[in-house]
Amino acid sequence: MSNTVFILGAGASCEYGLPLISNFLERSKELYDSTKVTEYKENYKRVFQAIGNLQNVNSKSFINIYNIEEVLSAFEMGRIINKLPGISKKEEIERIIVATKRLIYETLDKSTALMIPSRSGPPDACSGYKRLAEFIDRQNRENIDACSVITFNYDLLLDYALYKQKLKVNYCLNEINEDKASQVKLMKLHGSLNWFMQVDEENDVEPLYLDDIFEDTKYWLNSGGEDKKFFIDPIKWLSGKNNEYNGKSIMPEPILVPPTFNKMEYNKSIPNVWRQASLELTEAENILICGYSHPETDNFFKYLFALGISGESIIKRFSVYDPDPELEGKYRNILGRSLEERYIFEETYFGSFVEDLHNILES
């Protein structure tokens, strides 16, 4: 298990152009109104129409229709009870859920532009994630498995930074990687843009590794004379391989797990991730949280965290780094007395946090 566990939320990636939960649908609407999502236009339209119908609920109850996670949670409940405002056909509700996940996928992918330099080398990693990957690399070389990462983010910014650092990612799904010195445990509790379901194995998740995408130089090579934007887009890469990967047929729908009651629908590989995250928290000496607002909709993490830290290890440092000062009290409220004495809250951004990592762990 790792001595230091990083826990990252959307606030870490928003510095590099990705939307937060609060403005996610706003960004999606901007893309819909532009010409950037032509292929998925009908998905966006179906989701916005379904969200419009949800407004009828608010005369008697309340659903925050501007929060993409609440919206997806409502759609998932609609699938269970076979009912959404204006819709009673199960097939249409299923199409809305698929369309919502495509909207999330496309909005994040189109918000994650990497720059391929004119010299036709691979794109550079985002600066903050690059520094984090370098720090993890140094720590793990000195002490195998010294650092691991738990994240709530679907995006691939950290995955790519680890790839650029020549570190093998272990998503803790089912992977076996004997070379522990060059691997990093990256536990994505809510799924990932590069996780897909196998066609022949119900509920078995197949991660598409970035090593394979970027070995395919024809996919990303810059043949022009100037820098250009590049979007990783795993679904597009899969389509060029006839949706075949590692000798398996893949369903080109990303595994995105909303922070809701219905996580157990993913009943095979995904719980392995949660179990490993719990083990990492059990053994951790340092828990460093950055950019995670701990929303009320994610009670799942509240209980995972509570049970995970209930081991016999002594936590030396529990620190939260975020520009929102209101989170200081929010985190304090979930801590027991012994951990509260080791609690530090610092009002800062992800970029500044990773720049100061060495000093943080030495203090």
List its salient traits:
single chain, 363 residues, alpha/beta, Rossmann fold, 2 domains, 7-stranded parallel beta sheet, 4-stranded antiparallel beta sheet, globular
Write the layout of secondary structure elements.
Elements: E1 4-8, H1 10-13, H2 24-33, H3 41-54, H4 68-81, H5 90-110, E2 114-116, H6 127-142, E3 147-151, H7 157-164, E4 168-170, E5 183-188, E6 191-198, E7 205-207, H8 210-215, H9 217-220, E8 228-230, H10 234-239, E9 244-245, E10 248-256, H11 270-283, E11 286-290, H12 299-308, E12 317-321, H13 327-332, H14 337-340, E13 343-346, H15 350-355, H16 357-362
Parallel strand pairs: 1-3, 1-11, 3-5, 4-5, 11-12, 12-13
Antiparallel strand pairs: 2-8, 6-7, 6-10, 9-10
What would you say this structure looks like, in words?
- The chain has 363 residues and is α/β, with parallel strands linked by helices.
- The protein has two domains: 4-17 and 120-362, 3-Layer(aba) Sandwich (Rossmann fold), CATH 3.40.50.1220; 21-110, no CATH class.
- It contains 16 helices and 13 strands.
- The chain has helices spanning 10-13, 24-33, 41-54, 68-81, 90-110, 127-142, 157-164, 210-215, 217-220, 234-239, 270-283, 299-308, 327-332, 337-340, 350-355, 357-362, and strands at residues 4-8, 114-116, 147-151, 168-170, 183-188, 191-198, 205-207, 228-230, 244-245, 248-256, 286-290, 317-321, 343-346.
- The strands form three sheets. A seven-stranded parallel sheet has the order 4-5-3-1-11-12-13, with helices on both faces. A four-stranded antiparallel sheet has the order 7-6-10-9. The protein has a two-stranded antiparallel sheet with strand order 2-8.
- Strand 11, helix 12 and strand 12 form a beta-alpha-beta unit.
- The model has no long low-confidence stretch (mean pLDDT 87).
